[in-house]
Amino acid sequence: MATSNSLSGTVQAMAGTIDPDAGISAAGEPITEAEALQRLRQSEDQSQQYYAAWWLGRNRSRHPEALPLLLATLRQRRPRDPGAGVEENAIARNAARALGKLGDGGAIPELLAALDDEDDGLREAAARSLGELQATEAVAVLLRRLASGPAGAGAPRLDSPRLQEPCEAMLEALGAIGIAEPGVITLIEPFTAHDRPLIRSAACRALLQLSGEARWAEPLMQLLDHPQLQVRRAALMDLGAVGWRPALEPICHTLAENSLKLIALRGLVEQGAHHDATIQAGAVLSAMDSLL
Amino acid sequence: MRSVEIDPIGERIEAVRQAASAQTLLAATAVLATSDHGNGVNNEAIACLVEVLGFNNPGAAVAAVDGLIALGPEAVEPILESLDPRNYGARAWAVRALAGIGDVRGLDLLEEALASDIGPSVRRAAARGLGQLRLAGLPREQRHPIAARCLEALLAGCGDGEWVVRYAVVVGLEALAPELQPEQPGAPPRGLAQLRSALERLSTDPAEDASVVNLRAALALQRLAPLSAAEGAHG
User: Fold this and answer.
1) Contact state of A270 with B212 under an 8 Å Cβ cutoff
2) Which of A163, A180, A267, B30 is the most buried (most CB within 10 A)?
3) Which domains does chain A have, with CATH numbers?
């Protein structure tokens, strides 16, 4: 059934992988890789395509057909027409997300093109995936889109709570790609003073990844005390992504779900050796044990 | 003036029952959960904390779980009796509480949760719980079959799709290992070798996408080395 209801049910089911305790609907039942590929190939039932695109990314499919099918799904997108209830773009966004998880550089040219799409949700998904693929080719486009700074790219839109550009995803992508040139650093720095704490967090994360300078970790650790849970969660994920081991204690003490603290601490173990050897992996592991 | 006898626990229970907002419920639950019960445990306090597990208030539920864990074995029956298959949230919190208490009466629920609960954080708690059941007070002949069931459940959990559950399985296996040592030299093996090879697989599995799981399994093996050596020496 390709009704919008079944699609929203699918969206909820997949959100369950982000929220560890969310429920799961019938659409979230386990399927095989062959079935996922088959669901992506057909185009009558869009909720099936939507789920299949997510599934292939989630399971980091290595099937030779996964990349071409996801690229075809990405091309299915249409010019933005929010009133028409068109779901192709939602599926294209899911395909863009999945392409980042396959780890195949063959997706880079089309993801780069999607960075200039008029759908900012697609630009967001493409930016995240290019970051995951550490696509150095994307740096120039990301810099161009963010060049107008917090007052331009970072200004709120009039028609939605979103910003002109998906700044959070784009800043995080710059950090993940890892080109620490002065031009990149200079462009990111003003975003550390953005009005929105989530943007500040993303900018500090990127600068900390690129420079390794402790001064960018301080604001992130302060955000662990922010009154909004959503902000504390973002700071947890950002410190985890960098692997900033001096944040071990603040992470353990922030008011947030253990599930998210565990993800952040996993980052401290896996990414942390780059930054600071004074806190050993063993100390992080024992903190993790006590959060289970 | 005669002082009026007050019952602090009773008042605290009342505060939880009367709480009108999520914030006051959390605060009242935290106070009740950390109360000193003096002589004997207050069954009404247990019943009240168990009730909070079903209120769909995560902050209060966390506090109630901590309180129930502190109350220990006395809380087990009330928790088991309260299980409602229609209230998934309450059930998930009950698994966490039972995992923390470590009473063998929770074994069925922990096995079931690790094998089939849809929430990774519930499976994670169940895996940890299966490694830390308190078996020391049980008659000898009961201890080994229970430990064997825990081992079986944890071995199956090694294949869980979520890294954090596999991580908890490793921690559970490490904690369970001392229960699986042969009773005396020459006694039949009790699964320690199986446990070790599961940890070895997890410590080196190239398909493991979370290297923290590899690392934790290697640490567990290192800590268990003395146990295993003893087993080897005695055949």
Assistant:
1) yes
2) A267
3) 1-76+87-133 (1.25.10.10), 134-151+164-211 (no CATH), 232-292 (no CATH)
